[in-house]
Amino acid sequence: MSNQQDNAINCNPNKKKKDLYYVHTLIAFAITAIFWIIPPFEPITALGMRCVGTFLSMIYLWTFVDVMWPCLYGLFMFGLAGYAGEGYAGMKAVWLNAVGIDTVMITLFAMVLFGAVSEVGDTEYIAKWFLTKKIFAGRPYVFLAIFYACCFVLSALVSPITELIILWPIALGLMKTLGIERCDKIWPYFFVGMFLVSTLAQPFFPFMGAQLIPISAFAAMTEAMGNPMDVPIVSYMLLDLIMTTLIMAVYLLLLKFVIRVDVSKLKAVNPEQIEVQMLLPPMNFQQKAYLYMIPCYLIMLLIPNFIKGNPISDLLSTMGTLGVTVFWVLVFVIVKWNGKPLLDFKEVAYKQMNWGIFFMIAAAVYGANTLANPATGVVDFLVKVLQPVLGGRPEWLFVLLMFTVALVITNFANNAAMAVTLLPVALAFCQQLNIDPIPVAIGIVLMVFVAMLTPSASPHGSMMHARKDIYSTQEILKIGLPMCIITLLLYSFVGYPLCKFLLAVIGA
Fold it and tell me: Are 167 and 5 in contact (CB under 8 A)?
């Protein structure tokens, strides 16, 4: 691994804040204690106050301290609060219900299965396939479009962090080869655009990654409110793909016709140079198997949504996302190549399993369920407080306000946690305004991943702000802030109606 890559991984802009670890921890404990002591705010019940204090302390800890142990702390405190019953039976019920949901199990197996895609080196071949297309030779904006498409695919399949680690050195090598220097105007626009598409692509697959947290929370909340709903996979993915394509098209059009950056040096892009830089051996059987697995996996998930009433679609419907994921894990641990299983579950899990995400899904979904439960009175309280702001507003203004709040707070706090916090409010007002909550929920989930303006916006946001050799804070804000605003407007006035249209036409 190159020094540049090492710097990208190890550089942590928040190191100076480590001495505040115990301060933030004590503040979180104080938040819990205050809500457990003070009298309830009507219509919140005493149980609701304990659940709110626990949930807010988890959000604070996720934002300023850590991910892993705050999840354990939160579930422990929900048990003490008596949410699932009194005594040890209530404590046991919290853990069984939180960790035993299918989403948590999907997360476990999906992180291993798709983590293996990176472990066997397939991501490098995917990047090379995109970047060596002769179509962009001498066509700078075609080159940018294809490069950003490569960013989208890798970020969606694996993660923005892995995608940046792979493509940063490639991009820097291209800049050097083409004679593009740090002071050239195209430099910051190229790299900020690269990061923008990466963060927009992150939530593309609703069945893997941090986006599972709010999506699962939405299902749990609607079930608790007596009207169970699920986010439709096909409509969700199509919306994210179309909107990301639209946003990046607007970005490129702004570069060409409004900002008018000098892209003359990009005309010298030569696919043969990239071929030399990314000299890879022929793909082996293991790498091909994982590469073919990805479309097969997606097809198996999508078939029950399009084809119904036959044994295959019925079987896949019975399997669901969890069954399909476990099926492919079984295939790869059973089939051997060169005397070893195609998937060494223990080794890949050791390297790729993110226990923070695993337990955050459990804690966030369970916490969201407590907030949505009528027994706590939290939703009624939020509706009462926000009624002057959101109540009685036209649908378009309500959507704009919800998406704006999602965009603002996600750049200062944990993305998934902020979505989980906003969803019960959105659900309550959707019910009041007689609006379909699914398009609003999808919009909130996608908006909270537009996280790039601060180091605390996301883990990959910290990576971006840490690379002072590539980006300055001023450049990130100068380019990123207008694009965040454009993204907000496009999602509010194009994405939201488009989502309603997709749901009406596709439904799944």
Answer: no
